[in-house]
């Protein structure tokens, strides 16, 4: 997909839909890290998601590809899009507040624009895209509020972990473009990524965390693990790869701007939280950034200015 093409309404709808399960993932992780160590959480997340996706794949009568080339790509995607970022985010949230983690995670489109510009021929950075990404990032920071930045000079390791996860997601977005060229369906791609991630993470969790020695988690933690596995991972990554195949890597990374919006709106709708002026300001800034990136609104404004009454057209010889 050329970077200059605006996303369709269907693609924008899928992007918003994807932001909802990912918006809840920070909350689910925040619940789980109170009782379980990071690798155990991440291993349970990808293992359960992989099992769920294999069941759905079988029910739909689909089969997994057998090509060694495709499975090598699955391992690369599992590393860049699951093992590295999931582990860094969960560990990072044990070190810094979730608000600051969400702001740092919103650097993903910044990294995404840079990586896609350097590594692809059809997703080059443009002035509108760069301006839109900066406006979206500023909107995330404004919406979460300056209080989240209080810990910015504190635990550097935790902050670097979240930034490392954002960079890994950006790399994964570009790396994952190859599955469309290989003819692998989004459902099979999501299943392959989760399967290879589980193959890497489960042994790691067994060695590092020794989960059989841990106290049994409470029902709240169990529910959080199930939610993050089935909703925020299995379901979300089917949407992720479907969008990646049509909308491109840099457009897909914009979902991280919508994740805090979804999280705040979910909290307002179901947890009785209050929608504050800073949230509305931040959402407006994010909307402006997304409009700049999409490109259609600036184009309509330029066309309207060219057609405005009283303007005398310049005739060239």
Structure description:
The protein has 317 residues and is an all-alpha fold. It is 74% helix and 0% strand. The protein is built from 14 helices and no strands. Helix 2 (38-59) packs across helix 10 (219-247) and helix 9 crosses helix 10. It starts with 8 loop residues before the first helix and ends in an 11-residue tail after the last helix. The mean pLDDT is 85.
Q: Which SSEs are present, and which pair or pack?
A:
Elements: H1 9-32, H2 38-59, H3 68-92, H4 98-105, H5 108-119, H6 127-144, H7 156-175, H8 178-181, H9 186-208, H10 219-247, H11 249-252, H12 255-270, H13 277-294, H14 296-306
Short description:
With 317 residues, this protein is mainly α.
> Over the alpha carbons, how many angstroms does the gyration radius reach?
21 Å
Q: What is the N-to-C succession of helices and strands?
A: HHHHHHHHHHHHHH
Structural class of the helix and strand makeup?
mainly alpha
Report how far the terminal alpha carbons are from each other: 39 Å
**Poorly predicted spans:** none
Q: How would you describe this structure in keywords?
A:
mainly alpha, globular
């Amino acid at each position: 997909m050329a970077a200059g093409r605006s996303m369709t309404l269907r693609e924008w709808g899928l992007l918003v839909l994807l932001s909802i399960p990912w918006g809840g993932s920070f909350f689910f992780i925040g619940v789980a890290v109170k009782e379980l160590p990071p690798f155990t959480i991440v291993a349970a997340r990808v293992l359960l998601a992989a099992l769920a996706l294999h069941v759905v794949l079988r029910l739909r009568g689909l089969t997994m590809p057998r090509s060694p080339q495709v499975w090598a790509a699955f391992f690369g995607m599992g590393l860049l899009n699951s093992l590295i970022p999931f582990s860094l985010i969960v560990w990072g949230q044990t070190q810094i507040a979730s608000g600051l983690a969400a702001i740092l995670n919103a650097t993903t489109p910044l990294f995404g624009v840079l990586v896609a510009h350097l590594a692809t021929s059809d997703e080059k950075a443009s002035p509108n895209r760069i301006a839109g990404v900066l406006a979206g990032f500023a909107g995330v920071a404004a919406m979460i509020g300056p209080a989240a930045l209080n810990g910015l000079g504190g635990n550097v390791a935790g902050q670097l972990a979240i930034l490392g996860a954002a960079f890994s997601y950006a790399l994964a977005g570009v790396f994952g473009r190859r599955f469309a060229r290989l003819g692998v369906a989004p459902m099979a791609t999501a299943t392959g990524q989760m399967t290879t991630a589980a193959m890497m993470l489960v042994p790691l969790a067994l060695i590092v965390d020794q989960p059989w020695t841990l106290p049994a988690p409470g029902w709240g933690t169990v529910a959080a693990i199930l939610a993050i596995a089935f909703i925020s991972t299995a379901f979300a990554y089917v949407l992720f790869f479907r969008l990646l195949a049509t909308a491109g890597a840099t457009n897909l990374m914009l979902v991280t701007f919508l994740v805090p919006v979804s999280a705040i709106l979910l909290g307002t709708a179901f947890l009785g939280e209050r929608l504050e002026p800073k949230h509305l300001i931040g959402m407006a800034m994010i909307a402006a950034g997304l409009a700049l990136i999409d490109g259609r609104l600036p184009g309509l404004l330029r066309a309207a200015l060219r057609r405005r009454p009283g303007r005398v057209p310049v005739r060239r010889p």
